[in-house]
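Margin note: ligand = PBG.
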Amino acid sequence: MAQKITIATRESPLALWQAEYVRDALESAHDGLQVELLGMTSRGDQLLDVPLSKVGGKGLFVKELETALLDGSADIAVHSMKDVPMAFPDGLGLAVICEREEPADAFVSNHYDSIEALPAGSVVGTSSLRRECQLRELRPDVTVRFLRGNVNTRLRKLDDGEYDAIILACAGLLRLEMGDRIRNRIPVAQSLPSGGQGAVGIEIRTDDHATRAMLEVLHHPATAECVTAERAVNRRLQGGCEVPIAAYAVHESSDSLWLRALVGSPDGTLVLRAEARGSTRDADALGEGVADDLLAQGAADILAAVYGR
Ligand SMILES: NCc1[nH]cc(CCC(=O)O)c1CC(=O)O
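Resulting structure:
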């Protein structure tokens, strides 16, 4: 049995928190196991002056880590599931999904308590088309301004006065012990989260059975069921962050899920919604059904306009 595991991780404070969480859980579950972090910078961390929707989207945060897995310099890669594309390179795959932190988006402001309380003309920072779409549907009278960078950078820009408010994931703030910055947990009906938001996933080489067995202690089946349904929506739509897409599942009982999803235009003038309930055992089919409903409502046209298909 391997007595040492190397974790490939990005170097943002949140990515390091997540990698350290995995390291600590593995070391306490397996006596004598040594776990090391291999920090690396992804293209998503370098290209900070352009929206993700313009530079090729999701894979940007995971590609360098996957290269480290494939060349053997690391054994596992720890990701925010929100940033993990649907398809994996040959020889790599997801081993486990860890317990979800709060999935909602956070309204963060030094002046106002909620989206509703913003004066007309306020400037709100986000570069997520999903957040922009839903915010503008609710408040067509506010201005959305570009905001990227890691969580700490975004908060600093807010504090510098560049924005009246910003929208972040609650999960990142809570993990970094900055929950006091959350002025308001935006109800999911107002800002439906991204598929996988708040969940951490671990990618490995698919033939590395010894490592997979050691990761099992971190697997959280209930989270994995929800994230599976959410990711099935994105997979069926074949959409990344170039289009406003949200997908969010919760358990209604131990064996049934309620999945909601939406596709929209960035300016929030067109927002298509679909939802369905289904068995946890068939989370993929649940997600595909909701995606098909969206496609039938006209999501196909939105996607075709963006991706030229
Ligand atoms: N795209 C960046 C990213 N990836 C995961 C999180 C937050 C933590 C999570 O969703 O697990 C964030 C920042 C944010 O959206 O505020």
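The longest helix spans residues 283-307.
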